[in-house]
Amino acid sequence: MAELNSKSAKPRSDRLGRLYWIASYSKPKSQLHEKRFYFNVDEEFKYYPFFSDFGPLTLSNIYVYCTEMKALLANPKYENCLLFHHTSRDTIRRTNSALLMGCYEILSLDRSAEDVKERWKDVKFRHYIDASHIKSTYKCYVSPIERMFN
User: Fold this and answer.
1) Short-list 117, 92, 95, CA closest to 106
2) Which residues, 6 or more positions from 95, have their beta carbon under 8 angstroms from its beta carbon?
3) Which end of the chain has fewer CB atoms at under 10 Å, N or C?
4) What angle do CA 71, 101, 86 make, to 5 degrees?
5) Residue 20 backbone dihedrals phi, psi, to 5 degrees
6) Using only C-alpha atoms, what is the Rg of the chain?
């Protein structure tokens, strides 16, 4: 899956072909625009570091995101809209945003981790950093985390 912007986004995640993932420097001007609904969860789901670490979001965050996505896709208000999960181009936010979307694909759409990894192969992610008081040399990327859910 290539990283998409609002002018070149293609349907990619759900069975209805209505769900898009986009990363850009600026937020869309309005949430609902010409049968397009933009939503951003960068502030709602954050990783809080212990020291100089960076980790994936919690299982609770993943559960809430999947639940909210199911509700959004089922909402009659948006049944004729394309849904755009918008995120910042900041590497930390982009990484965790993609983790949420990838986990949604695995848990709710029954996709395999390998299929999800293939769709996200062109997007650059930041590696997760282990939580400790010393500099960590361990690097973990999004796809091994998504494999846990498969």
Assistant:
1) 117
2) 125, 126, 128, 142
3) C
4) 85
5) -125, 155
6) 15
Contact status, residue 53 vs residue 137, Cβ threshold 8 Å: no
Angstrom distance (rounded) from CA 8 to CA 52:
36
Amino acid occupying residue 23? A
Side chain identity, residue 5: N
List, in sequence order, every residue forming a beta bridge with 19; answer none if it has no partner.
Answer: 83
Write down all domains in the chain, each with its CATH number in brackets.
19-43+52-147 (3.90.190.10)
Handedness of CA 14, 92, 62, 27 (dihedral sign): negative
pLDDT single digits (tens) 29-63? 767 677 888 898 888 888 776 776 677 778 899 99
Residue 131: pLDDT over 90: no
Per the document, the length of the chain is: 150
pTM for the predicted model, two decimal places:
0.78
Taking residues 73-96, report their average pLDDT: 88
The per-residue pLDDT for range 85-124, each reduced to its tens digit, is: 998 888 888 888 988 998 898 888 888 888 888 887 777 7
